[in-house]
């Protein structure tokens, strides 16, 4: 970037060009680009991130569009075709019970694995995203408030400590038993459980984000541009909106990617302990937990959801890595 | 020879938390304590009574039970010793009753000691139990794993409120059984060794035993059937295909037996509509708008393929049944009409009864009332499979079904404040399993007496879950209570069973659930017993060489 | 520093009281009933009797107060008695006999003092969960260090991938998978942990190792995944610092530069992260303990929860909260000790 | 070219692999360093000074660079010549710290924070000299004495953060000298330090060089320092060497246009002698511009009386205030419309706090501030916000004072948005006007700060400050972080604006030469107090307070003929500004030397 056309002028022998050229600012020569274009340029260079984004996109797209392409009802019982194997098993085992009506096989009640996988993905992704967003909103809110308003710092951080020392699992189970019924009454069995899990996971996982954001805000607050903003009369909430939030975006992104993964995994752990979604409502975690018993005979039933979870988590993490780099103007600027 | 076979490993996936059945009614605790504590008599695998500490089982015939059925006289075997070497006397037996009947103690087996007026101990080996009314079945106290004999000397200071502070005694009770506790780790593992003072000098064959608890049924099954780490695994509630594939491991064998546990649908005869004011929902004040119609209940039952349910949910540990009282043979009705699924018949029946699908949405209506039901049960994998299947069938006959499952601790928790207990029955149909202790169904059948329903005035306590009310039924119950003769009792019980099942379809039995346990191929002498503790004959277990 | 520590300690008392109150009230709200596991054959009157015997009917505040007295007054007395009577450390002191048979915190399930059971469970948990933590840390640190030193190398990329996979696979899957492979097919390790096993010779030690290896590995995988990320990030931060250049300019070898100068600085945040993770050891690893039947604290908690054993759940969660608060404090103090720049006053 | 040169750099080319491909850090650079000679390398930021020196140490590899071409001939102790560019890292380790020592720019970060000074000093000795622990410790003590650190025994046991910046830099020098290297590379060793400390460090290095005969390669961007230190000078520009010569040649007869421009941009202390009013600098290429002194007016704009700001220090068990940092203590001054008042002083003397207190960005404890008749201290939050239209601030760090995530036009428009003074296209017009005003192309409006150079950013900051037409601008070290050439441009711009718009500046700086250039009045601060204040000419030409005198002596002058010697300098360490609660210093009293020239007579702590 040091080579710009003027250099040669200055260094040219005799230096006939106006001497002031030597002191001229080295301005950026490329035409201005939009910030998001820049972000994208930087992002594209990160191979892992591109791959992560691709997988995530593929999976998200799959679970969203899937039900229209593969219209079998995931809850429909087809007891005559139970325990079918995925179509590919026919390659090495010609006796395997396979069929195109259930390309990935069916479970012990004859429910189609493929449509369950799609429906489960919808649920898991929805839980993951919603819980992640919730915890992000709480975490960022608390973190920014605590970092920015000195008076709130003490109380909010005590609150964070309190939540950190609350044992999550009992709380979770208590909440599930407590609020399941009223929520179900209002939002239906799946909707109620969804809200419950999302809320519980959300409100029990915002603390790290809050701490990180608070730390960053405290540091940013000392940066001169925040002081400058104050000196030009920017109101506190505008400072937060214009100056602080955009600058804590990258740590938030990182928490977000981790949050999505933990939410999906927490949901599956809840399912494993038997307090998750209703039994006829598939999620990846539940499929995995249910299939562990038949792992030897029907490995695909654990592998399919297991791989789906892992790929999502991996994808999200790599995506997060890339986003962090892309969103940091210092890295992007280089 | 006592102790020659070394060590036996038992796994219970629910870990025992205490060693006396009086402070816990959990099966795991009752069974664990049956290795140490013994009653006067037990039930065999066929439901017959055999004497354990008693010389013989008292009956009217042998004079042990008085003619008026108001007293029973037990005679202890001679020369019985506690594991600490002191003799077993009638005082211990009487003490056991006093211990449980102490109002402060919170005894879990209090029901066994119902109607006891007094207990006399004319001599060291004789115990006379006097009841305050005629007891056609006087074998409540001191019979079976639930009411074994405690040593008076050990528990003397543990009565009433002090019961729960006697940790040492509760964990390490002195007993007469084949084993004594070496170390009790609550909710984890119990180490036992052979009782040196066991009455049969050749038994038990094992010198030591461990009873490991915790985990899940699947892991327990694996440890016996696949890895061979354990010799006996209790109550393997697993999907049949899973169990079958594990059994291919070749290390052990699953065994099964049937008792009286019946998985059933209960029809709500009262209106659970949330539109009713609280306190009137699911009370006899409002009959159910749909289920009051016998034809609907009948059609619902006809739509169910019990054979398939059994195959999917229980495999060899279940058999389809139409009876509330499936056993013992004396009391079991021969009703089998429901066993074949008849979807067409069900549809026709509904059609006939005026439930027709007039608007073509697949759901039948009558008088503007949609045939739509809320079907609830506790959270449990097999029950949810059942729900899914039954919902499917009911949909086929034009009955809209909403499923709901409630955490079992809430569902069975009995908290009057919770709307989700099975007693409150804020649903149209619910599914659970129940059974009766011992072999006599009288008290079981009595649950469905008119007036015994859970209601606000009784804090929603009461066992007549369906809010069933039938004069004929109540009259038969009165007769049963007065009848001592067994064959006569059997007749009446069958009639009662038929009234509540096939004649009114109030209770729709689905599956007679047996027990599946597994033992390793090297463990001999296992006789699975559903009428008593599974470990009832642990003294007879031995090692098969090979 | 001392003032700071004392101040924090004193401040933690109201915090803990508040936490215990919150937990207690939450548990009170839960609709579960300790009688839920009781078979349906037991008549309601009997259940009611049993409930009364457990003291369930009393008002919540009274129960809370009783619990407080038991935990903060009776239990310490029992503990001091035990110290002066049986313990190796203080056994020579005259027996104190402070405990006069007051009611201790009694579990509803087992009718025995909660603390006794907890003490009984701690060894298993420490052995397995604690060891896995140690193993995890020992694996994670070198991986983190090397990944950072060779950033974007094949090793780094592979490490990232493996740790992410480790992070995303739940233990209820890895556990049974290992059991099927190593216990069922290969028959190398037992699938069920024997908590009564006593190590007294080489053979029994080998057995202990073989029964610990699977749960330890399953747990260590997760610890490793997270810690190595921390270590890597922290190393990367420090590798770019000026003092590293100074150290190199002095002519120190790479080993000294990285393993002494950089590592020492990078360890400061990592050690506090490690310290913050310690309470989780005592909390057990619920799912893993369940899968391998290591009946430790985690299994105790979950069974108590499902049995609605309120005193047990309450006490366990409180102990857990206590440990978290204490280790937070320890982490802060460690930070101050390790980093000479930080001074608390 | 000297045959016996210690180090000879020939045609050095260093490349960096970046995301945009290969970038050359330096290209075709050749020069050499003879024994006992000080070679200064000058050039602005990014011109490749550090890269050249790091290449010589072969440390550039650790920063991702690669020596693509050229030879680095080093004359080893035993007489062999060695091409360092080809030496392997094991051999390099032996040379580094042993035969070549290096001092880095940032004393704050160059030391490992978790090891004691002693440990870090002895490390190199034990590696290169095989000394035992005791021997190394003895030698370390000796070194500490050599670099004149007070209480060396105690310092050895301390951690870096317990030392002041000057002391830390001495430790770094001691470390570099530990093994008596033949060549000492100093990469901007004084840039981060105060003038007074800088003077001491420069003198120290000069003495050590003379005592030990070490060759020194001295890197700096400050021509005044070059004039003080160099025997020979190498001028670098954008990765290339553009000129080389003895220090006199360079200063008196620069050849290359860049060198000329550079020298023209350097403000020299004493240049303004005899001129009562500030005037813009004459920059190369702007010769035709008329230079007009700035008169300003006599109407007072800002009156500050008895301004006192203290920061509480909390401590103890109950977190009560146990002491106060007396950052600003009883400060009074008047600033006239259209004029500039400068505050100078060492780091930590309370300059920034004074500036911020006036805008009430930190809350003063007491005092009276009146801006154009408005009592700033008495304003409520809303009124205060309104009043801030009248007073704006420019900060030191152009990188930190702009939000990296916001477009430049938005940043300039933000004050107008806040106050709704302009809206829509009117606002955009004004933003364009402001860009023109600070001589930035309008095409920059949609850019982000990271795309700009430091000087451009500082101009954005000025544009932002101008947006609301303020009367007062507090410029807190507004030009300190900039390269000289850029600094000159920004200073000129500020002065132009003052002349045109009648702005008043409160100019905070530690750079005496710049202050001399821009101020009408100067206040010298020490430990929160103004020890001397008055018209610039009076204070600079006739300093009365001993502190002012010492300060003036310490300032290096960009003239090789006016070198300072170590004995001129005597500085006492600044006492702590922290006093226990309840401590009330006596009020400041001043003596009027000449009209408007006041000197503190009460105790200043100096
Ligand atoms: N690690 C690196 N990666 C890429 N480019 C680099 C790196 N280090 C230096 N450069 C480039 O090399 C050129 C010379 O940098 P160098 O650090 O030598 O400048 P300098 O003259 O020391 O500046 P300063 O006065 O700011 O210290 C710059 O253009 C810089 O961008
Ligand atoms: N927010 C604060 N809290 C506590 N003390 C502070 C605070 N800000 C400044 N100080 C202290 O007040 C004193 C004066 O600081 P100030 O920043 O005004 O100095 P300065 O002259 O601007 O120094 P520099 O040249 O380094 O910018 C210093 O001792 C500093 O440590
Ligand atoms: Mg540099
Ligand atoms: Mg400052
Ligand atoms: Ni400078």
From TrEMBL, chain A:
<feature type="transmembrane region" description="Helical">
    <location>
        <begin position="302"/>
        <end position="320"/>
    </location>
</feature>
<dbReference type="InterPro" id="IPR050366">
    <property type="entry name" value="BP-dependent_transpt_permease"/>
</dbReference>
<keyword id="KW-0472">Membrane</keyword>
<dbReference type="Pfam" id="PF12911">
    <property type="entry name" value="OppC_N"/>
</dbReference>
<dbReference type="InterPro" id="IPR025966">
    <property type="entry name" value="OppC_N"/>
</dbReference>
<feature type="transmembrane region" description="Helical">
    <location>
        <begin position="161"/>
        <end position="179"/>
    </location>
</feature>
<feature type="transmembrane region" description="Helical">
    <location>
        <begin position="248"/>
        <end position="277"/>
    </location>
</feature>
<keyword id="KW-1133">Transmembrane helix</keyword>
<protein>
    <submittedName>
        <fullName>Peptide/nickel/opine uptake family ABC transporter, permease protein</fullName>
    </submittedName>
</protein>
<feature type="transmembrane region" description="Helical">
    <location>
        <begin position="191"/>
        <end position="213"/>
    </location>
</feature>
<comment type="similarity">
    <text>Belongs to the binding-protein-dependent transport system permease family.</text>
</comment>
<dbReference type="InterPro" id="IPR000515">
    <property type="entry name" value="MetI-like"/>
</dbReference>
<feature type="domain" description="ABC transmembrane type-1">
    <location>
        <begin position="121"/>
        <end position="320"/>
    </location>
</feature>
<dbReference type="Pfam" id="PF00528">
    <property type="entry name" value="BPD_transp_1"/>
</dbReference>
<keyword id="KW-0813">Transport</keyword>
TrEMBL record, chain C:
<keyword id="KW-1003">Cell membrane</keyword>
<feature type="transmembrane region" description="Helical">
    <location>
        <begin position="208"/>
        <end position="225"/>
    </location>
</feature>
<dbReference type="InterPro" id="IPR000515">
    <property type="entry name" value="MetI-like"/>
</dbReference>
<dbReference type="Pfam" id="PF00528">
    <property type="entry name" value="BPD_transp_1"/>
</dbReference>
<keyword id="KW-0813">Transport</keyword>
<dbReference type="InterPro" id="IPR035906">
    <property type="entry name" value="MetI-like_sf"/>
</dbReference>
<comment type="similarity">
    <text>Belongs to the binding-protein-dependent transport system permease family.</text>
</comment>
<dbReference type="Pfam" id="PF19300">
    <property type="entry name" value="BPD_transp_1_N"/>
</dbReference>
<dbReference type="InterPro" id="IPR045621">
    <property type="entry name" value="BPD_transp_1_N"/>
</dbReference>
<feature type="transmembrane region" description="Helical">
    <location>
        <begin position="312"/>
        <end position="338"/>
    </location>
</feature>
<keyword id="KW-0812">Transmembrane</keyword>
<feature type="transmembrane region" description="Helical">
    <location>
        <begin position="161"/>
        <end position="188"/>
    </location>
</feature>
<feature type="transmembrane region" description="Helical">
    <location>
        <begin position="268"/>
        <end position="292"/>
    </location>
</feature>
<dbReference type="GO" id="GO:0005886">
    <property type="term" value="C:plasma membrane"/>
</dbReference>
<feature type="transmembrane region" description="Helical">
    <location>
        <begin position="125"/>
        <end position="149"/>
    </location>
</feature>
Automatic annotation (TrEMBL), chain D:
<comment type="similarity">
    <text>Belongs to the ABC transporter superfamily.</text>
</comment>
<feature type="domain" description="ABC transporter">
    <location>
        <begin position="302"/>
        <end position="552"/>
    </location>
</feature>
<dbReference type="InterPro" id="IPR003593">
    <property type="entry name" value="AAA+_ATPase"/>
</dbReference>
<dbReference type="InterPro" id="IPR050388">
    <property type="entry name" value="ABC_Ni/Peptide_Import"/>
</dbReference>
<dbReference type="InterPro" id="IPR003439">
    <property type="entry name" value="ABC_transporter-like_ATP-bd"/>
</dbReference>
<keyword id="KW-1003">Cell membrane</keyword>
<dbReference type="InterPro" id="IPR013563">
    <property type="entry name" value="Oligopep_ABC_C"/>
</dbReference>
<dbReference type="GO" id="GO:0016887">
    <property type="term" value="F:ATP hydrolysis activity"/>
</dbReference>
<dbReference type="Pfam" id="PF00005">
    <property type="entry name" value="ABC_tran"/>
</dbReference>
<feature type="domain" description="ABC transporter">
    <location>
        <begin position="7"/>
        <end position="263"/>
    </location>
</feature>
<dbReference type="GO" id="GO:0005886">
    <property type="term" value="C:plasma membrane"/>
</dbReference>
<dbReference type="GO" id="GO:0015833">
    <property type="term" value="P:peptide transport"/>
</dbReference>
<keyword id="KW-0813">Transport</keyword>
<keyword id="KW-0472">Membrane</keyword>
<dbReference type="GO" id="GO:0055085">
    <property type="term" value="P:transmembrane transport"/>
</dbReference>
